[in-house]
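I hope you will forgive my troubling you with a question about protein structure. Could you please explain, in whatever detail you think fit, how the structure tokens follow from the sequence? Thank you for your consideration; the sequence and its tokens are set out here.
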Amino acid sequence: MAAAALLACSVGLQAQDRQAKIAWLSRNAAPIRSIDPNTANDDFADLQPLAAAIGTARVVVLGEQSHGEGATFLAKGRLVKFLHERLGFDVLAWEAGEFNCQDMDAAVRDPATPLQDAINRGLYPIWGLSAQVRPVFEYARQAAVNHKPLEMAGFDHQFSGTGGAARRWRDAMIAFIDRADPDALPPALRASLREGTDLLSRGDATPAELRALAEKWKALPDLLDTLAPRLRQVYGARRTAFMRRTAGDALISLEGLARFRESSGAFRAADNNYRDRRMAENLLWLVNERYKERRVIVWAATFHTLHEPAAIDLGPDSDFSYKNVVTMGQIVRAALGHGVYTIGFTAAEGHAANVMGGMTMDLQTAEDNSLEDLWMRTERRFAFVNLRTLPAQHWLEQPVSARLLSHSPITTAWPRQVDGIVFTRTMFPATKGPVVPDGAVITDEPLPRPPG
């Protein structure tokens, strides 16, 4: 009898605790009216709590779960528009090639270039072919016409875009040097640039071939350093510094691809860290030098934006570990502190798949007491919660199951990883069209309270 009474008491306390958490979310998670970036005459009144949470931060990072979240892409598009129009963020930095995104930015501003052709110059296809990402570019093109441009940038060392991304860099680099001094580029280096870029797109290129090419290209940064006074005279310091960084990116891309081929595509923390460290260096260079004193939006996978990945413990039964992972977000947070505000995204149900047809996931109904389960019971389709100013000993400061990473339930203290979370009740995949798939809901509507 005593044991039964204790069990009943425990169950009763758990139910009370659950209801208290739901009540807290109902009071404190700010409802988002819509994830539609194309809302006419949007006053963004529902996003003012997000503005208050961001405060004076110069960098806002927008994550995503798996590159296959059409609803998240739309939500990010509306946030980009809000941050640009109302808070003065005028740079959008993509998890994409540093050189290729500058090339893309110029094409977006050129009304004679078809918009999809402009997008193809910079983005990986997972974003570039998604109808849910396109509104960002439609908005950016219109903003340029209105003389309030949203400048595009990239912070990845890898070449991105379609249709010869590495060759466009090669041609631009050769022309960059030749205009300053037609005799400066040694014939052997010129030949290796012309012939070697195709190696980056060859699926059968071996690690040895890639590293042999890197040995030849190592002369390029030294040449640019030697020519720097003349290059600055011809192009200015800003353009010269940018092209010098892209030369470093090319070398890192060759080594990164060699490591990827050696691992047969399997995840290795050291190889991931190699890329993330360079992305962090590039992003910090953009923030502290190229766009000094400007406000920057970052579009990236949430994985790369985590502040403290080693704090995530998946347990002994997992075949993956965050223990030795170093992320771009960890390095950037250490450098900028509260100057960066990172937003993760999660969903409770629906489907996710990238526009290429990969990473297809059926989001099962959220498990009891997960963040998604609790949030569903607030009767909101979309909401935002600020994790940065939680009271001491708050329940969200404790380990809570949530699906911010590849829609996998992970139990951890999420304020150690992100500063805020946007919730979408029902996810839909990224698609080539239409922008809003049949049956998808992108504006808040009253919801029946789920049982329990």
